[in-house]
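User: My advisor, Dr. K., asked me to get a structural model of this assembly before our group meeting. I'm new to this, so sorry if the format is off. These are the inputs:
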Amino acid sequence: MEEKTLKISKIKDGTVIDHIPSGKALRVLSILGIRDDVDYTVSVGMHVPSSKMEYKDVIKIENRSLDKNELDMISLTAPNATISIIKNYEISEKFKVELPPKLIGIIKCKNQNCITNTREPVKPEFEIVSRHPLVLRCVYCQRTMNERDVFE
Amino acid sequence: MLKNKSVVSIDDVQNDDLFEIFDLSESMLKTIESKGNAPLLTNKIMATLFYEPSTRTRLSFESAMHRLGGSVITVSDTKTSSAAKGETLADTVRMASSYSDIIVIRHPLEGAARLASRFTSKPIINAGDGSGQHPTQTILDLFTIKKELGSIDGKVITMVGDLRYGRTIHSLIIALSRFDVKVNLVSPEILRLPEYVYSMLPDRNYVKEYNDLEEVIGETDVLYVTRIQKERFSDQNEYQSVIGSYSINSETVEKMKKKSVIMHPLPRVDEISPDVDNMPQAAYFRQAYYGVPVRMALIYKILGD
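Assistant: The format is fine. Below is the predicted structure of the whole assembly, which you can bring to the meeting.
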């Protein structure tokens, strides 16, 4: 029913990212590396009325699936986002993104003096201190990062 | 239990271990003063990797191991070691761990000791990592407070100076959250305790910030003074703006309780005037003296039977 209220047409095959907090769609596009040189169709709905969230953003991407790193990154900015895998206009799989207990190797520590920002053979590693608001702690240097630090 | 465990942060030392170390430190102190040595680790080797200048910490670790009957191998100058050739810390630690039973590391980068602990099964002791933590100094500081004042609980601890970069402050304030204490923080605005350290405290109610030492000097049991560290500032103008912000002299001490102490992890520059040195409150040289028995106790807890 909700789909009828959306001003974005259905896609045949690809991925729908729904329940993105209103205003965060551009950040999600940036996470997915979607710029002006894409060769697939991307539909973005911003500030769409939602029964669950009052307003939300929605992204539909034709002929593209998301990998685990991308899903983890999306969970940092849109912790309640739902992902629908579309095959031949039907939802073949639907799930919520999940913030993992640890983030390993997907973001850099903002502390320039952290040992992980050197040639050492380790991946940056973060524990989740808080989900709302997002606070991550570097396992190595103990510095904390918020959402803005992660995406700046 | 600390047996064969690394001590990277003060959180690696539980209260039970802490009190056992205090008791053992007292025994070690008596042994040093009566016999000189306690040959309990005669077959053990300690490697010390110091990538940053150090006098007290390095000497006290090496002295502690010698007094326990163990041996010490060291890189006397990292500029002449493989680090200068571009060897990673991970590789150096792998190598050093095959030559020794325990590794003590000091490094200018935060997280270095945690990284080291991931590349060896041998215990790592963090002797200071950048502006991160300095857990063995904290054990020593707590021991000093207990020895000088009889207990830690019920005391008012005033920390003054560089609270932003001071790793001894960071470890100590986290450890003090386990005790019934009040902590006053006195520093210039730009050297306030960082938010990430606050976020490691179970609650903030025992900590209060002040600009003026005069406001809290009269209620202070422990005045913990730190050097404003030139080497931690990327902006030297910022350093120039805060140097000499607080100077403790005999007039300051006159306002303190009779039974109170002044502590300092040392080295000092000009934050404590020499005219304080012979006053009964000046505990900083005694604090440095306790460094050997406390580290003997810690090393024995990790490597002993």
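One thing worth pointing out at the meeting: The mean pLDDT of chain A is 93.

User: Perfect, thanks a lot.
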